[in-house]
Request: fold
Amino acid sequence: MVPNKPEAKRLSKRVAAFFFKRTLQLIGLTCREKWIGLENVEKLRNSSQNWIYSIWHDNITLASYLLKKQNLVSLVSSSEDGSIAADILDSWGFQIVRGSSSRGGIKAILTMIKELKSGKCGAITPDGPRGPRYRLQNGILVIGQRTELPLVPFHVESTRQWVLNSWDKHKFPKPFSTLYICIGEPFFIPKDQDTQQLDETSKYFENIMLETVSTTLEYINKEK
Reply:
């Protein structure tokens, strides 16, 4: 029996997710990992404090591999492309909340807040799902403010990598490269900030995220 078009589409996405995951796993086995700032989350963990990883969209592939099996709650776009990411994340032990700025956004944010308040850690791409690249959107700040959880910058660069021709210039490591994983200091959003103050905080935290990128690239350049 020939599957209908919706079923065939879902099947093709599952196949793509499986192939993508297996390829990354094989490449990952050949790569070295160097972690910078790991003590920032270890201190939180030792004090029984959960947190939210803030990860630029170009890092979502590598981050999902490096943070697998940690039972993180992740906000994933409701778009068709998001289905592939959701399948990969689900297979690696992430709890998926689907939603975006255009579809199911408010409901997704409320679900994220509920799950994070239950004691789980989270992972959010603040410039996703459509960009602009490295421009922070306020959704992550609202979630951080409502949950009173710290935002933790997370960025990865590899010494050798492919850069895709996508809006986020998505990165994919080449075999036998070194991965530098930089974890920034926890950043708390003041609970009493109004909309204007939150906009100012958004720009401030965006700069912190960009500084994390610069720090990671400094380690890459030292190795070259």
Observations:
- Residues 30-73+118-223 form one domain.
